[in-house]
Amino acid sequence: MVLIDALRRRIVASATSPFAHAPYPLAETLRYRNDPGLFGPGSVSWKVVGDVCTMVGGIRALLIQSAHPEVVAGVADHSRYREDPLGRLSRTSAYVTATTFGAMPEVEEAVERVKRAHRRVVGMSHRGQPYAADAADLSAWVHNALTDSFLEAYARFGREPLAPGEADQFVAEQARIGRLLGADPLPETAAELRRWITDHEGVGPSPGMADTVSFLTDPPLDGVGLRVGYRILQAGAVSTIPDRIRQVLGIETFPGARAATRSLIASLRWALGSSPSWHLALIRTGAPIPEGLFRQRLPVDPESVRSA
Fold first, then answer.
1. What's the predicted TM-score (pTM) here?
2. Is 167 helix (H, G, I), strand (E, B) or coil?
3. Phi-psi category of 78—alpha, beta or left, where left has phi over 0 and alpha has psi -120 to 50?
4. What is the pLDDT of residues 70-107, one digit of tens each?
5. What Å distances lie between residue 155 and 126, 181, 229, 238, CA to CA?
6. 83 phi/psi in degrees, rounded to 5
7. What are the residue ranges spanned by the domains of the chain?
8. Ranges assigned E (strand) in the chain
């Protein structure tokens, strides 16, 4: 038992370390008692985003987002992702955590932070098209790619199958975030969303896309185990990208990618359980805590909040 616990702790430390390069966004969340945020305990969003398969969804989303020349030009021209990749990853993760599991003041703060950053991101893509990160259509590409990717990752690698109607419910829930960002259009069903992504006229190859794909194929991660694990997750993400988008990206899947990813996700789920931020949100809202779902320590000590 001691050896098993030590193994679990080692996996947790390795898997969570890349996301620990930004302040935790829900540090004050227990001060907003009974605030359900955008979604609440009965939502599909808490179940989907709370599962470890979001790691696959995140990689998939970054790849798909890079297939839009104007979007990826904004990243290439204004982001320091090569100099500070784990910082950018952590900030993106913090945004997803805050908008999904946060109380409304935390949701609004996270959205406003993104909107402030996007106002400065303007320029011209390689094909002579102007871009602005806060433009409704570009915001929609980024947001919708993330929604579609989280949903597809859960459908392929999630803890349990979604019930009928839950995929559409997830898309409709996530559209609430998109509306706060000013994104448009925002499909309201899973089928509409997939068609919008797959048939989008704006996608195409670009220098920024090539650089991003190269970076996401082999990012600078410490440790052989972490690098091998990432490559498996990345292969699983690639295997779920629609053929047309994958052809634009110039990447290929390989036999066994999904099976390998499914096995790794099962191991990660055994070690990490579901998101501790989900656990914290359940405590904040006074909802029942499902037995056996959470394994990690809470990011915030409830007793310290009560005594403050």
1. 0.95
2. helix
3. alpha
4. 999 999 998 877 777 777 788 899 999 999 999 999 99
5. 35, 26, 20, 15
6. -75, -30
7. 2-307
8. 122-124, 130-132
